[in-house]
Amino acid sequence: MRTIDDRIVHELNTTVPTASFAGRIDASQTCKQLYESLMAAHASRDRVIKNCIAQTSALVKNLREEREKNLDDLTLLKQLRKEQTKLKWMQSELNVEEVVNDRSWKVFNERCRIHFKPPKNE
């Protein structure tokens, strides 16, 4: 799901012209399309990660409730720990997303700021 972020530098180098080639390609349209692709990819990943966090949080809550009822069940304890670890991993993935998104927007703005101005509300 991060392909667009992984390839943003290459994408910009191949589609947004330098000053000497500015007349041959419509850089504003290219930057607009890339902007829309980045926005869609970032929103999609954010939605998926948050959905996973919500589902895992609900499972952890249920396991905690079961654990309180049956303190001697080691299998239940192992499952609870496993799900708690998964939840922490997913929450840290949101931090990774923030770093990846910031890097992509920095590169995008460096190359496209002259050709395209994103809408103010986004």
Head-to-tail CA distance between termini? 21 Å
- List unreliable stretches of 5+ residues: none
Overall geometry: rod-shaped
* Portion of residues within helices: over 70%
The helix/strand class is: mainly alpha
Structural domain tally? 1
Strand content: under 5%
- Count of DSSP-assigned helices: 4
- The secondary-structure element order is HHHH
Molecular structure report:
The protein is an all-alpha fold and 122 residues long. It has one domain (3-17, 25-112). It has four helices and no strands. The protein has helices at residues 3-6, 8-15, 27-69, 74-112. Helix 3 (27-69) packs antiparallel against helix 4. The mean pLDDT is 87. Pfam families: MIX23.
Short description:
InterPro entries: MIX23. The protein has 122 residues and is mostly helical.
Features:
4 helices, 122 residues, mainly alpha, 77% helix
Fold blueprint:
Layout: H1 3-6, H2 8-15, H3 27-69, H4 74-112
Family: Belongs to the MIX23 family.
GO cellular component, one term: mitochondrial intermembrane space
Pfam family, one: MIX23
